[in-house]
Amino acid sequence: MTQIGIFFNMVKDGIRAATQGNKAYHIWMAVLTFLMLLGAYCYFLQLEHGLKITGMSDRVSWGLYISNFTFLVGVAAAAVMLVLPTYVLKDIDFSRAVLIGEGLAVAALIMCLAFVTVDLGGPARAWHLIPGIGRFNWPNSMLAWDVIVLNGYLFINLTIPLYILICKYQGKEPKKSIYLPGVFLSVFWAVGIHMVTAFLYAGLPARPFWNNSLLGPRFLASAFAAGPALIILALQVINRYSSYTIKAKTLRKISLVVTVAAQVNLIMLGSELFKEFYAETHHSSSAIYLFFGLEGKNALMPWIYSSLAMNIVATIILTVHTLRNDLKWLNFACVLLFVAIWIEKGMGLIIPGFIPGPWGEIVEYLPTLPEVGVTIGVWAMGLFIFTVLVKAAIPIETGRLRLNRATQKSV
To answer: What is the pLDDT of residues 169-226, one digit of tens each?
Structure first.
């Protein structure tokens, strides 16, 4: 049987496994399908009427879509915090979580590319992002570099787990000489996707709010806090509703990664606030608007102070050893941290960078219902993809799904 035949056989068996489950599983998938259809309808409205039905304008040209894109780049990069200790440091406690982390990275990257596509106004414009073909000035355009590193990281996170799963599907041991080079490459590439995204903002001289050399490192710190926090929550759901066992020791080790990253993120946030407010200049206007309001406009103040409060509370809970080792407190802290960083990377970073405008005018941004609908649809698509990947991969990883060479069917 050829490798191509084995691959298609594995896909067929994986789809069969992904379509089987209890009543709660089918309800979950039905809800995600409904939300995807809702998002598709909202996107149809956007294609029909243009971006004018969103809250974006010539004053605030990046909104909810790019905010989610920026946040999800960090979620995708967080998989490296499981890959590194598993394959490089040989920590077996992380090995049970690495497959889930890479599946989450794939789903997050697909969502990133989807948010870029919907922000373009239509998929027909996506060819402009292709280096050497589109109209972006590559290699000078950071946006073109961003598309390259995102697609490259997606390719790495698809091929390495796929190779390992194909080997296990056949009952073979994966060869380290084949997948380890890709693992080491993924470690550096994960850092690259977030640094390039940060450079995309920091390289815009007309937006002083983003002209910060700390932006790239802070992107990484927040990514390594929010991403593993989501992985901790996902692992517990998988442990409860599937046959894939996740030890408490694994969760404790990942929570330690989240704790350190959250602490570093707060330190960097404090450094940025000192820079903005200790010796204010006219370049501090965006930060003043974000935290204190300008000319009576303060739509983002509730967002940023909610984010700051959740960030601090979550970091304190994680820092206290006894609370961090209690699953209820750990889950509470992970939810707070995930939401806090989602706000921080979106409403607290993207929007205020446009306010005030070049002539000092203040135009506040508020996403519209179609915009929110498209965003929910993309998130539902990502969760749907992640669920299917996990549901198909777990039987192969645990050995319950194997290729029967005699009949060329799985048993």
So the answer is: 888 888 888 888 888 888 888 888 888 888 888 888 888 888 888 888 888 899 889 9
Q: In this structure, which amino acid lies at residue 99?
A: L
Q: 408 lies in a domain?
A: no
Token pair recorded at residue 104? 């989450």
* Cβ neighbours around 240 below 10 Å, total: 8
Looking at residue 86, its pLDDT comes to 75
Of residues 264, 257, 286, the one with CA closest to residue 351: 286
Please report how many Cα atoms fall inside a 13 Å half-sphere around the Cα of residue 347, on the Cβ side.
22
Strand 409-410 to 403-404 pairing: antiparallel
Q: Please report which confidence band the pLDDT of residue 317 belongs to, taking 50, 70 and 90 as the band edges.
A: very high
Q: What is the mean pLDDT of the chain?
A: 87
Query: DSSP labels for 226-267?
Result: HHHHHHHHHHHHHHHHSS----HHHHHHHHHHHHHHHHHHHH
What range does the domain containing 289 cover? 21-403
Distance, CA of 75 to CA of 255 (rounded, Å): 15
121-143 pLDDT, tens digit per residue, is 777 777 777 766 766 666 777 77
Residues 6+ apart with CB under 8 A from 197: 70, 73, 146, 219
The answer to whether residue 39 sits within a structural domain is yes
What is the token pair recorded at 148? 């390259």
Instruction: Say if CB 396 and CB 14 are below 8 A apart.
Output: yes
CA distance 104 to 231: 8
**Domain count across the chain:** 1
- Classify residue 10: in a domain, yes or no: no
Task: Tell me what the mean pLDDT of segment 299-322 comes to.
Answer: 94
Per-residue pLDDT at 409: 47
Distance in angstroms between the alpha carbons of the first and the last residue of the chain: 16
Comparing 291-305, 313-327, 352-366, the range with the smallest average pLDDT is 352-366
Question: Is residue 15 assigned to a domain?
Answer: no
> Which tokens sit at 79?
């998989």
Angstrom distance (rounded) from CA 123 to CA 136: 16
295 Rama sector, left if φ>0, alpha if ψ -120 to 50, beta otherwise: left
